[in-house]
Amino acid sequence: MKSSWRNRPSGSWFSRLWRPWVTLHPFRGRGRTINEPRSVGIRDLMASPDEVGARPSRRWVVIGGFFLILLVALITRLFFLQVLDYKASVAAVQYNSLRTTTIPASRGEILDRTRTPLVTNVTTTELRLSRAEAALHPAIIGALSSLTGLSVKVINADLSNKQYNQYQPAPIMSNAPAKVIEFIKLHPSEFPGVTVLDASTRAYPNGGSVGAQILGYVGPITQQEINANPNAGYQTDSTFGKTGIENYYEQYLRGRDGTSTLEVNVNNQILGSVQTKKPLVGDSVVLNIDAPLQKALDGYLASEILADRHSVDPISGKVPAALNGAAVVLDPNTGAVLAMASYPSYNLNSFVSGLSNSEFHQLLKVGAFNDYAIQGLYTPGSTFKLITATTELQTGILSASKYIDDTGTFTVPGCLKGANHGCVFHDDDNSAAGLINLPKALTVSSDYYFYNLGYLFWSQTNKYGQTPIQNVAADYGLTLTTNIDLPQEVQGRVDSPEVRKQLHAAAPKDFPTVSWYTGDNIEMAFGQGTTALTPIALANAYATFANGGTRYAPEVAAGVVDPHGNVVIRYSPRVLGHVSLPASIRNPILQGLTGVVSSPSGTAYAPFHANINFSLSNFPIAGKTGTASNQPGEEPNSWFVGFGPTNHPEYVVLCVIAEGGYGASASAPVVAKTFNYLVAHPVPALKLGAQLTTPKKK
User: Could you tell me if residue 225 is inside a domain?
Assistant: First the structure.
C-alpha cells in the first residue's frame, strides 16, 4: 500500500519540513504530483518554537562566561598598574610633563675656637641662560657676548656643559658687574631666557692664605664623588669639598639642596613652576684653631724658610735648599690642634676667582697643595732620641745615672773591617762630650750615647727581642696614623728588619738591602736609616710625653653647630693609647730636654735666647733639636720640638724644614717665636655653646 504524505506521522521530519510550506503556499499544493520539483527556504530547515524546547540558561552561561573572563583580565591589569607597577607608572606619566631641578644650598661656615669666621659665604650675582631660549633665539648668544665681553665660543661651551641640568638655565657669568645686571634688567625683551640669580661663594675674612691646607677648598663634584655618595642627593652641578676641613666635614657643611619642580611640554619647553622646596643652609664647623695664632705661625714658618734659602749654614758652609716645611701647635692635655702650618702654600681665593692652568700646574710643581704637617715624611734625626731614651729606662738596659765616656767616635765591638754597614760611627760635629749620663746626653744631643744603646739592644736580642725600640715607638704612635680629622694623612715608619723587607719588596732599586746588621740598629736608635715620620705624629709623641703618657688623637674640629648656633655635635678628646712614664722614667728625660733650652751646653740654648722675649724662669721650655742626614750633598732636615711650661705643659710646638740645615739654626727660631706669641697671647677658651638635646641627623 502506497503511503501518502497525509498518512506520515505528524512528528516525522517530512511533516516538519512540509507543513510550513503548505501553510504558506496552499494554492501550490493542489494538483501537483509528488515528483514535481519544489524550492526549500531557510525556514523550511528550522523547527517551530512550539516544537523545540527553549534553552535560555545555556545562552546566559556562555555570554556570562565571556564577560567574566574580560572582567578578570581587566582587574588583573588594573592590579598590576595600580599596585605592583604603581611607582613606575606614576614616574612614567610625570616624566612626560614634570622635571625637577635643584636649588643649591649655601654651605655652612668654618669658625675658629672663639667663633671668629675663617670661611664664610658671600652672595654674588650670576647670569644664567635658558638652553631652550638660546635654541629658539640664537641672537641672544651674540647679544650676551657683546654685553659681557665673553666670547661666543665660551658661552656655547657653557650651554653644552653636561655638568649642569639640561632643564636648568646654564651659568654663563659669575660675579657679574653691576652695569651688566642693570642693562639686562632695563632691556628684558632683548635678553629672553637670561636670568639674574644670587649665588653663594666662599669668602675668607682672614685672608685666603691663613690656614689654607687646614681649611681646604671646594670645587665642582666629579662623577667618582657622586658614585661614592649614592644616597646623598648630589647632582652633576653640585659643589664638593676637595681638601682639608671642607672635605672631612663635607656631610655637615654642604647643607641640603632645595628643589624646583617644573612643568614642560613635549618639546621640553618650560611651561611654569609647579612646586618649590627651599634649600637648607649647612651646619658650621667650629675648630680648635686660634685664628691669630694660626696667622702668626704661617708667617713664622714662611719667613724662616725664605730666609734659610738665602743664608749660609754655619756648620756645612752651604746655602740650604729649604724645600718645604711644617709647624704644629698642640694642646698636650686634649690633643686639640691649636694651629698647623705648611709651606709652600697657596691662596684659597684663587679657587673663587679662578685659577689658570699655568698657575695650577706651577703650584702643583712646588708642592703647594701638600699639607706637609700630615703628609710630609722626614727622617727625624735626634728628635727620635726621646723614644730610645724611654726604651732604655723602661727596659733597664742602662740606668739614667749611668755614665758613658763619649769619645766622639763609637767603634762597634767585634766588628770586622769591611763589614757591610761599617764599624765606626762619629758624633755629628766630631766633638767628644766626655762622661755623660742620660740627661746630659739629651741636653748636648750626644750621638755616641745613643750609638751605644743601639748596639746594646741588638747584642742582647735574646733578652729584649729584636724590636724593643720600635715597640716603644709604636706606643708613642709613630708607626700608625694619628687619626687626625683631616683627609689623606700619611703613615710614618720606624726602621726595623721587617720594614726593611717590606721596602725592598715594594721598591728593590731604592731599597736594595734586605739584611739587618748591628749598624742598622745603631742608626735606627738615633733616628736615621729608613725611619721617616710626619710632623703631626712626632708632635703628638712629644705631647704624649709632656702630659705624662696619654696619647690623644689630634683634633682640628671642636664641634658642629647648626645655623642658629645650637651645638649638634661636640667632639671630646679621644684617647688612643698610653706610654708607661712613671716619675723614674719621665723625670730624667724631662731634665735632659729642659737642659736643651736652658743650659748653656744645650743645643738650642743660643737660638732660643736670641729669639725669645720672655723669661724662661717664668715660662720654662723643654725641647729637642734634630739634624737628620739626607743623601750625600744635601743639607740635613732641620727639626725642633718644644713644650712648656715644663711644670704643667700647655703647648707643644714643632717645626721641621726639609734640607733646612741644623735644627738649632733653622727650626728652633720658629718655635721660639711661636712661644713668644703664646706667652703674650695665651690661647683663648673654646666657645662652642649649649648642645641640642637630640643631635640632628645628617
Answer: no
Whether residues 307 and 182 fall in one domain: no
Lookup: cell for 649: 705643659
Pair (268, 303) in one structural domain: no
C-alpha cell read off for 692:
641640642
Q: β-pairing, 409-411 with 424-426?
A: antiparallel
Give CA angle at 471 (392, 537), nearest 5°: 100
Same domain, 576 and 656: yes
pLDDT for 6 equals: 41
The Cα diameter of the chain in Å comes to: 167
Q: Which of 649, 675, 384 is nearest to 543 (CA)?
A: 649
For the beta carbon of residue 457, count every other beta carbon within 10 angstroms.
26
Instruction: Please state whether the peptide bond connecting residue 344 to the residue before it is cis, i.e. omega within 30 degrees of 0.
Output: yes
Phi, psi of 424 (to 5 degrees): -120, 130
d(CA 652, CA 327): 10
Q: Using omega within 30 degrees of 0 as the cis cutoff, is the peptide bond preceding 645 cis?
A: yes
Q: What is the mean pLDDT of residues 208-226?
A: 92
How many Cα atoms within 13 Å fall on the side-chain side of residue 666? Answer: 38
DSSP state of 485: S
Query: By percentage, how much of the chain surpasses pLDDT 70?
Result: 82
Whole-number Å distance between alpha carbons of 675 and 641 = 11
CATH number, residue 385: 3.40.710.10
Question: Does residue 332 have a cis peptide bond before it, meaning omega lies within 30 degrees of 0?
Answer: no
Distances (CA, A) of 248 to 33, 242, 688: 117, 9, 19
Q: What are phi and psi of 242, to 5 degrees?
A: -95, -40
Lowest mean pLDDT among 28-42, 452-466, 486-500: 28-42
Amino acid at position 530, single letter: T
> What is the grid cell recorded at 305?
724658610
3-state secondary structure of 568: strand
Of 344-358, 480-494, 635-649, the one with minimum mean pLDDT is 344-358
Question: Rounded to 5 degrees, what angle do the CA atoms 102, 103, 106 make?
Answer: 130
φ, ψ of residue 15 in degrees (nearest 5): -65, -35
Give per-residue pLDDT as tens, 417-431: 654 457 888 887 667
Task: Output the CA–CA distances (angstroms, integers) from residue 580 to 428, 475, 577, in the order listed.
Answer: 31, 9, 10
